[in-house]
Design a protein that fits this description.
By secondary structure, this protein is α/β, with parallel strands linked by helices. The protein folds into 2 domains: 168 residues, Rossmann fold, CATH 3.40.50.720; 245 residues, N-(1-d-carboxylethyl)-l-norvaline Dehydrogenase, domain 2 (Orthogonal Bundle). Helix content is 53%, strand content 7%. It contains 19 helices and 7 strands. A 7-stranded mixed beta sheet has the order 3-2-1-4-5-6-7, sandwiched between helices. Strand 5, helix 5 and strand 6 form a beta-alpha-beta unit. The structure holds 6-phosphogluconic acid. Catalyzes the oxidative decarboxylation of 6-phosphogluconate to ribulose 5-phosphate and CO(2), with concomitant reduction of NADP to NADPH. It catalyses: 6-phospho-D-gluconate + NADP(+) = D-ribulose 5-phosphate + CO2 + NADPH. This is 6-phosphogluconate dehydrogenase, decarboxylating.
Length: 462
């Protein structure tokens, strides 16, 4: 009898299987198209403790009880279809883990559906791309606790390990918690990628640095507390030459950024929960604007340019601004996670989430260690303000960079949104009083006053 089955042999699925086999697990694999299973077994899986199944019932029959099955199929109807096929051959106590990028609301719905059958359904976030799946991903399982207790020894074995040896796999909470955490991970991923891209644009168009020089900047910033996987790969990407031409690879790529939806879902969920995540939303919208390439090409020569000529700040200032904006993006993500916890009581724990993001995932970053130590859900901004001198300097840098980007006419929506977010928190008084007055003027909506309790109306019309 095999220990576990994995269904869905696209590259992430294949690599997770190889990871499990390398860690001593006997794995059954099944894929809807037979040819893919054959190619996998004749290729990367050759000689390993991996056995094929050619249909769903025999895949289940090959497993020891309770059966453990990981789905790595495209998010959406494919998951529901597989559940329809699996349920008749599963028994109470068996476990189905959905490791795809499913929407958390689908996961909540499926968890409820399976609860009635006694089969456990657990939505699990998996991050780290192809390499992570093979060598050690960050795993964010949610759903019924007994499913985690049964799966724990397997997931901890195949997950990445942080520098202090902790496995980057932990229970995120009930129902849709695992996929919600992964969705927020991706929202932060969108924001940080956009912030890096804007900074690169300023280095390139603002400071006229060559791709190689911009790579050196990102490599120099990728040190100490500021170091992160996304900075590291950015430096590598910017150094890569286009093998089919003489230039750099990045210059040969069409400037339209696509997406599969998790960033958009993060913004949508944040709006629904009433939590501002401006850097994440700016990143989603920046991808949308990039997709309107034809219009951009048409209007580029027609729209007047900025006529202010100011010096773009030195690379060092850009690095400081980027690091502060990056931490603010994580803060927005964690604020959203806490709002989700207040709404659904899944058991989300910011420190546990930060711990599983310390290695294996795309947004792994050295400062997550600090975040684990200093993050206080009741005072989230204290994590940004924990080093006041650094903050004084960093906020000046962010201010300088966004001012000069605007003056130079180089769009920096993520950096700008981050600064506005920061400034909102340092504004003891915001102009919302005027918005309230306007609401009351045209709609008699009423307003509160700081000096006395009650709801009031203004003497607007004499
Ligand atoms: C990860 C990534 C992974 C995938 C994203 C890309 O954590 O390993 O987030 O899940 O690369 O889904 O998302 P977009 O296609 O939306 O950019």
């Amino acid at each position: 009898m095999n220990d576990i089955a994995l269904i869905g042999l696209a590259v992430m699925g294949q690599n997770l299987v190889l990871n499990m086999a390398r860690n001593g697990l006997a794995v059954t694999v099944y894929n809807r198209t037979r040819e893919r299973t054959e190619a996998f077994l004749g290729g990367p899986a050759k000689g390993q403790s991996i056995t094929p199944a050619w249909d769903v019932p025999s895949c289940v029959a090959a497993l020891s009880r309770p059966r453990k099955i990981i789905l790595m199929v495209k998010a959406g109807t494919a998951v529901d279809q597989l559940l329809d096929e699996l349920l008749p051959v599963l028994e109470p106590g068996d476990i189905v883990v959905d490791g795809g990028n499913s929407h958390f609301e689908d996961t909540v719905r499926r968890t409820r559906r399976l609860r009635e059958t006694g089969v456990f359904f657990a939505g699990m976030g998996v991050s780290g791309g192809e390499e992570g799946a093979l060598l050690g991903p960050s795993l964010m399982p949610g759903g019924p606790l007994p499913a985690w207790e049964q799966m724990r020894h397997i997931l901890e074995k195949i997950a990445a390990r942080s520098a202090d040896g902790d496995p980057c796999a932990d229970y995120m909470g009930a129902d849709g918690a695992g996929h919600f955490v992964k969705m927020v991970h991706n929202g932060i991923e969108y924001a940080v990628m956009q912030l890096i891209a804007e900074t690169w644009d300023l280095l390139r168009r603002g400071l006229n640095l060559s791709p190689g020089q911009t790579a050196d900047c990102f490599a120099a910033w990728n040190k100490g507390a500021a170091s992160s996987y996304l900075l590291e790969i950015t430096a590598n990407i910017l150094r890569t030459k286009d093998l089919s031409g003489d230039g750099f690879m990045v210059d040969a790529i069409l400037d339209t950024a696509q997406g599969k939806g998790t960033g958009l879902w993060t913004s949508q969920s944040a709006l629904n929960l009433g939590v501002p995540v401006p850097a994440i939303t700016a990143a989603v919208e920046a991808r949308m604007l990039s997709m309107r390439r034809e219009e951009r090409q048409r209007y580029a020569p027609l729209l007047p340019a900025a006529d202010v000529s100011l010096d773009i700040p030195a690379p060092e200032t850009l690095g400081k601004a980027l690091f502060l904006a990056t931490r603010l993006a994580y803060l927005q993500g964690f604020s959203l996670l806490m709002a989700a916890e207040r709404t659904w009581n899944w058991g989300l724990d910011p420190a546990r989430i930060a711990r599983v993001w310390r290695a294996g995932c795309i947004i792994r970053a050295a400062f997550l260690d600090d975040l684990v130590r200093t993050f206080a859900p009741e005072a989230p901004l204290s994590f940004i303000a924990s080093a006041p001198e650094d903050l004084a300097d960093a906020q000046l840098a962010l201010r300088r960079v966004t001012t000069l980007a605007a003056a130079a006419g180089i769009p920096a929506p993520g950096l700008g949104a981050s600064l506005a977010y920061y400034d909102a928190f340092r504004s003891a008084r915001l102009p919302a009083s005027l918005v309230q007055a306007q609401r009351d003027y045209f709609g008699a909506h009423g307003f509160e006053r700081p000096d006395r309790p009650g709801v009031f109306h203004g003497p607007w019309k004499g």
